[in-house]
Specification:
Order of helices and strands: EEEEHEEEEEEEEH
Number of helices: 2
Structural class: mainly beta
Strand content: over 45%
CATH architecture of the largest domain: Beta Barrel
Largest sheet: 8 strands, antiparallel, barrel
CATH topology of the largest domain: Porin
Strand order of the largest sheet: 5-6-7-8-9-10-11-12
Amino acid sequence: MDDDVLGPLRPVQNGKCRFLTKYNMDQGVLHIQGGIVRKYLGVLAGMAALCVLSWAQPPAPTPTADQTPAQAPVPEPTTVPTRAEKPAVPGPSYPRFEFFGGGSYAEAGLFNAGHWAGLSGWDASLGMNATNWLGIVVDGGQYFGTSKIPTGTPEPFPPCPNAFCPGTFPTFDVATREYNILFGAQFARRKYERWTPIGELLYGHQGTRGVATGGGATNTEIGTGRALVAGGGVDYKINQRFALRFKADYFQTSSQFPTFAKKKQDNFRFSMGVVIRSVHKKKRKLEDETQPEP
């Protein structure tokens, strides 16, 4: 259209609009066709309204340093459960081993002569405690002294005048030695701090040897048999390792000599000595070594 009054509309950058109009001039007179002008003026008014609306919109806010975007919460590190250490097992509240050693005195009639002989000696034992109240014991002892035997009935020695004739009357002296080795059970009542009552029941072997001199001759008789001990006593604690022991026992022997039959002898013994106990030492840990002193 060469005679169009307005040319095509073209948008320009930076939000501004520029309109290109083509004018037809004939000898300096502007001929504007009325219908076309109104049409293009309406288009021009609509474009102007769109430009005004675009200028009126506020610019998008830019984030500043103070308005930092909210950060997502950082997950807490999860702890992997480790294997719990087993607590240290405490040691037993009683000694595992006990050694006793001391002196002993026995009232014994080892020859069934009707006379009691006071024999001194020693007694020792080694015990292993299985529980707080029960232990296994091995016991041994020996006694020395002089026994008196009637001259008229010198058994187990041969009668006079066949082989042996003692020079004294109504009794003659016999140098006596007795030994025993026993084993059995020991019971303890570990309830008190200082005192520990004990009991024992033992069984084993014993031997008796007697030497008599008379009429210029010496005669020796030896007998052996079983032995049984039943008794008890008490321990007095000195410290964790040492204690004093006092005990009294019924001591039964059954010696058999070559010249007469086997017979039972009822004897008694009293012992006193020292007990040495094993001590359970607490294991030191690394924490105990590195812990500062207060």
